[in-house]
Amino acid sequence: MPFHIEEKPLSSPVFLGEAGLVASVSTVAYLGLEARAVEVQCNLVAGLPKFVVVGLPDKAVAESRERVRAAMAAIGLALPPKHIVLNLSPADLPKEGSHFDLPIALALLGAMGVVDAETLAGYVVVGELALDGRIAPSAGVLLAALHASEIGKGLVCPAAQGPEAAWAGQIEVIAAPDLIGLLNHFKGQQLLAMPVAGEAEPPGRGPDLRQVKGQETAKRALEIAAAGGHNMLMCGPPGAGKSLLASCLPGILPPLDAAEALEVSMVASVAGTLQGGAADANAAVPLAPSFRLHGGADRRGAEGEARRSESGTFGRAVPGRVARVPARRARLAAAAAGERRG
Question: Is the pTM higher than 0.85?
Answer without folding.
Answer: no
